[in-house]
Amino acid sequence: MLSALQGSPDKPWSLSEVLSACDWHDQAQAVGSGQGLADAGLVSIDEKISAIWTLGDEGERAHADGLLEARLWNWLVAQPESARSMSDLNSSGFERHETGPGVGLLKGLGVEIIAGNLTFEGDATMVEALLAEKAGFLATLVEGVSEDSLESSMLAHFKGRKDLVVSSETVARFWTITASGQAVDSSALVEAAQIADITPELLQGDEWRSAEFKPYDVNLESANPMTGKAHPMQALIERIRSIFLEMGFSEISGNYVSSAGWNMDALFIPQDHPAREMQDTFYLDNPDSIEIEDEHLAAWQEIHEHGGDTGSLGWGGKFSSEIAQRGLLRTHTTVNTIRHLAENPKEPCRVFSIGRVFRKESIDRTHLPEFHQIEGIIMEPGANLPMLVTTLKTFYAKMGYPEVRVRPAYFPYTEPSLEVEIKWRGKWLELGGAGIFRPEVTEPLGCSAPVCAWGMGLERLAMLVLDLDDIRQLYISDLEWLRAQPIL
Ligand code: PHE
After folding, report:
1. Dist. CA 437 → ligand 1 center (Å)
2. pLDDT at 417
3. Rounded Cα gap, residues 314 and 203, in angstroms
4. Is the pTM higher than 0.70?
5. How far is the CA of 333 from the centre of ligand 1 (A)?
């Protein structure tokens, strides 16, 4: 390559010129050799990035079936003058989403709407020439064309329309010999084979001792391998799981279906709390009631009505066992940690769970009716607030978010209660709640040691990790987006 380039000192060589001058067939060989020469200061590389335009989804449809304005125009000229009203158009078989923008496009061709009728007074041959030009433009894009060889006003027109044309970038490289490259006596160069692959055979022999190894260049462009990989949410769950395991926690799980009693009453959430209403919680018809052992019902009744032996006054009123036994889809994974405590009230523990929860939320950019929570507790003599805060800080630091702060909050089942926020791009974002379970929660379960507890949103965190501004992206299975996601 060096001696080829020395032949014409001031010329920038393109890839295809290098390939033919050297009689190579592999682009990677030219790019690699060029890079090697550039690293040694013998050539300079000039990269020209240009946009290549092809048809988008709509563009392909238009290329196959005709552009919307062409189809409308053909309809219009085939209609008798008396049947060119807007209502004729609306009943013509065009889709509703086509007629709206379609009228605008027809107006662009000179069609006017006079008293509800589409009328055209202009030169039809000019319109047809323009439509043919547009169709011709789309046809050239089938193969992909570089931006500088496209007619700019046509391109601007199609760029302004949805999904008709899409662009991607390509890099064209040119190599020019430098003064020091020119000074090298290429006849004195010896060809030395560089070893790129280290194989068992190579290592078993002696040849490697004197071999020259090709340096590994992590900056070289390479194709993205399209391999199977875990869904980003699943990968994130695995990462969170391994962080908690590494911090000495054990994992627990539970059912999606729960009674209101375990989901709420055990947490001292009053039976008339707004979050318990039908419009916030998915209650089930089947099972519409789930039996709870009498000892638990009796304990919760005592706590809710009078506060038990905790010194609390309770909520007053009358506790209903029917309400407690209603079936629902769990609204938070705090039900998992509560059940763990109920089953192991005296055993100090550090447990976490990552699971799906359900709330009647309307779907928008930041809400889904099904999402996940990262839940956990620490129960041991002496467990306290600093321990809770440190645990959460450690977790988020391991996730890559070292700036964490807590603010006072309120939950019916913790005291004190905290809101946990992390700093992201200069802003504080709320990711979940935490606190120390109230005696009204722990006493009926038979726990005597304090319990630090937290529940965090997983999707919120996923939005930060994956840099999303719409939570729905996580679940719409957009293959192109999924392929582009890094392996977490
Ligand atoms: N369950 C709360 C929620 O769903 C979070 C939380 C868990 C708060 C544990 C305090 C203690 O938002």
Report:
1. 10
2. 98
3. 76
4. no
5. 8
